[in-house]
Write a structure and sequence with these properties.
five-stranded mixed sheet; alpha+beta; 468 residues; 7 helices
Length: 468
């Protein structure tokens, strides 16, 4: 929700005073690292943040400062688009960052008693309600536009997500905010667009491994072996018949591994075309970026992956992992479908899983901490569990590196359509929403200053040589 444009320039000047060469080094190595979620999410939509698209201005009562507030646009990785509101006011949004769809228990909503009221607002305001005349009538307001309705809706959401009181600059929008806050009632959490249980299975060749249950709001989902699966391995139903999909009435599948198949593993891709339920949370995958909540959606392609491991003898491991915000860590379930004990190290601790048993334990992780665990086993088994623990809304007074210099200048210009999947960006300082759209400009200025500094050093050296 904060401006990075002005604070970025100020920070750049300070960094240049300290050392232009340090800034150049930071630019050279900066950039998001590739992240394998390692089965943390059970599946669903993965989307890339595109920036604030439909917005107007609101005033924060505690500070008197104004910010752009409204709808973000996101592109679903496998196809489709969605719109989201912010539920993490004091955290910056990073344009271009990838997000995963998660349940409320894996987000800052896990302990929010008003989470259901936020979903009610989403269901009863823009863009789910795009008859703005009717919405204005209910709120006792005059004229609403997509921009002012989006700002009003975001302000009402912050009231319940962050306990931040925001008032739209537009008077009619302010009436809508009051209406939404007053009328909101608790609704239940929406289900996942796609999930697998479990997402990892194990056994011996000559057996059917599973079952794996597919849960989706789509009528059906396709299932397929990823490239590289050993010959003869196939996906089957409960009767052993090869299948390429499942439906709501028969949502389980197994992996049939023929006897004599060499020790190995296979991966299964599951895919469905559906609309992600309104109210699903979206959390960033690699770095801290504000948590978002789904407000508008088109038909999207959602995906999930499952793994299967088998061996003739010895330990045969399987591992699943999921964030546990209530416990402040990552729940790891390790199972052993072999005939010998499986012992592995994790963060300096040894864990032993007996044959036919499973063990679930929580690995503590600090809030906002990026983590990466690697679990290894026999026959080259390796499971990488990686992500960022983001379970709380940030509090006022962020770290110095994140402190903004918010603008009081209202946004100007821009018009939008009433569509839930399209809109145009209005003018003003978009960076105040916490997005990092100014980052390329700042990086360019830094590079230019480093070049100038290098030239100055070169000239001084030549002068010194001439003097000598």
């Amino acid at each position: 929700m904060f401006s990075v444009r002005r604070r970025g320039v100020a920070r750049l000047a300070a960094a240049t005073v300290v050392s232009g060469l340090v800034a150049a080094g930071a630019i050279a190595v900066a950039g998001p690292a590739a992240a394998d979620q390692g089965g943390q999410g059970t599946g669903g939509a993965t989307a890339t943040l595109g920036g604030l698209k439909i917005y107007d201005r609101v005033t924060i009562e505690a500070t008197g400062q104004t910010y752009a507030a409204g709808l973000f646009s996101m592109d679903v990785k496998s196809g489709g688009s969605i719109q989201t509101y912010c539920i993490d006011f004091h955290t910056n949004a990073i344009n271009g960052e990838d997000y995963d769809e998660v349940g409320w228990d894996q987000s800052s909503l896990h302990n929010n008693p008003d989470a259901g009221k936020i979903r009610w607002i989403l269901q009863n305001s823009y863009p789910q309600v795009n008859d703005l005349g009717d919405l204005a009538k209910k709120a006792g307001a005059g004229k609403l536009t997509p921009r002012t309705a989006a700002a009003a809706t975001q302000a009402a959401i912050w009231h319940f997500s962050d306990k931040v009181e925001a008032t739209p600059v537009n008077g009619d929008a302010a009436k809508l905010t009051d209406y939404l806050e007053e009328k909101a009632v608790e609704l239940s959490e929406p289900s996942a667009s796609l999930s697998l249980s479990p997402s990892s299975v194990a056994g011996k060749a000559g057996q059917r491994l599973g079952p794996i249950t597919v849960d989706t709001n789509a009528d059906s989902a396709t299932v397929s072996l990823a490239p590289g699966a050993p010959a003869g391995v196939k996906i089957v139903d409960k009767d052993g018949k090869a299948v390429s999909g499942v439906n709501k009435g028969d949502s389980k599948f197994w992996l049939d591994v023929p006897a004599g198949t060499a020790d190995g593993a296979a991966e299964v891709n599951v895919q469905a075309n559906t609309t992600v339920p309104i109210g699903r949370a979206f959390v960033s995958k690699r770095v801290k970026s504000q948590t978002l909540i789904l407000a508008g959606t088109s038909t999207s392609t959602v995906t999930a992956k499952a793994t299967a491991t088998w061996a003739k003898q010895g330990a045969v491991p399987a591992v699943t992992a999921v964030k546990n915000c209530a416990k402040g860590g990552v729940d790891i379930t390790a199972s052993n479908e072999g005939d010998e004990d499986w012992t592995f190290d994790l963060k300096g601790e040894k864990h032993t899983v007996a044959p036919g048993k499973s063990e679930t334990f929580t690995v503590p992780v600090a809030e906002d901490e990026a983590y990466k665990f690697t679990i290894t086993g026999p026959n080259g088994f390796e499971k990488v569990i990686e992500g960022v623990l983001d379970c709380k809304t940030a509090t006022p007074g962020p770290k110095p590196s994140d402190t903004p210099s918010p603008s009081q200048t209202p946004a100007t210009g821009g018009t939008t359509s009433g569509s839930t999947t399209s809109g145009t960006t209005g003018g003003g300082d978009l960076a105040e929403t916490g997005s990092s759209s100014a980052t390329p400009m700042i990086a360019g200025i830094a590079v230019a200053l480093v070049v100038v500094g290098g030239g100055a050093v070169f000239v001084l050296r030549r002068k010194k040589t001439a003097g000598q």
